[in-house]
Amino acid sequence: QKEVEQDPGPLSVPEGAIVSLNCTYSNSAFQYFMWYRQYSRKGPELLMYTYSSGNKEDGRFTAQVDKSSKYISLFIRDSQPSDSATYLCAMSQDSNYQLIWGAGTKLIIKP
Amino acid sequence: EADIYQTPRYLVIGTGKKITLECSQTMGHDKMYWYQQDPGMELHLIHYSYGVNSTEKGDLSSESTVSRIRTEHFPLTLESARPSHTSQYLCASSDAGSGANVLTFGAGSRLTVL
Lengths: 111, 114
What we know:
Strand content of chain A: over 45%
Order of helices and strands of chain A: EEEEEEEEEEE
Helix content of chain A: under 10%
Distance between the termini of chain B: 33 Å
Oligomer: heterodimer
Helix content of chain B: under 10%
Largest sheet of chain A: 6 strands, mixed
Number of strands of chain A: 11
Order of helices and strands of chain B: EEEEEEEEEEE
Largest interface: A-B, 26 and 26 residues
Radius of gyration of chain A: 13 Å
Radius of gyration of chain B: 13 Å
Number of helices of chain A: 0
Number of helices of chain B: 0
Largest sheet of chain B: 7 strands, mixed
Number of strands of chain B: 11
């Protein structure tokens, strides 16, 4: 079983919809949770990260961590065609440990 | 604007050739990484370095080698390319002082071995 599970999609939604992207994990020692966005033929870029449990908001993006359920989510409000990309979750115990990655969810926002 | 540069972006090469994928960063980061990315799969760490003259193998077995002679430069070399090496190779760096170990990635080098 993989340490981090992420539905590969594709997830196709109409423009303006609220998008929910999720990852589950098995290692209860994970403390740092990150979301990266990767456009086609580009490298991943950090969207946001959270430490331990709770929510974090940045513009149209909200990251949630539920450590009791070992479940993290990324919400995108008022989705735009420019949000079409692959979204990767990653997590680690701390900076002394390597990141463990999900396989990525491909998101398509239809105009 | 990218602060981490990878060359070449695309490379098509025959079996048995030696190749070097270049990676340079201008952020002064101590930590650098090479990942392999295949469609629909998670990123796999193949090499990393925590500073000059420090290199380690990652989780994914790889026939490649790396060197870290300068802080800003972390090239990856394949002595004899094979079709199984066809993949996307991503270079990344991070600030050693960052608790979250946030990575900055290059645009990637897509290698095709015929």
